[in-house]
Give the backbone structure.
Amino acid sequence: MNVVWSPLALEKLGDAAEFISLDDPLAAENWVNDVFDKTELLGIMPEMGRVVPELPSTNYREIIFGHYRIIYSCSVEIRILTVRNCRQILTKDDVC
């Protein structure tokens, strides 16, 4: 299966990387690479993430990566919808 990133997910990933880079730019770069490596695994193991508790539909899943939630949908392709800090509230705008 193909793994496709939404514009919102890429924006949120960039925001998180900027925040991390305030303390350690190299750590931010490594973190982004690790996120891409982890999400690429979804192409062969799409159900590796858990069902998103706030969303009753089973085609929305998430993987927890450090302090971040990577929310994705699973259908004919894996679509990464957003990247959220675990402390942030998930909104409907995050999964459009």
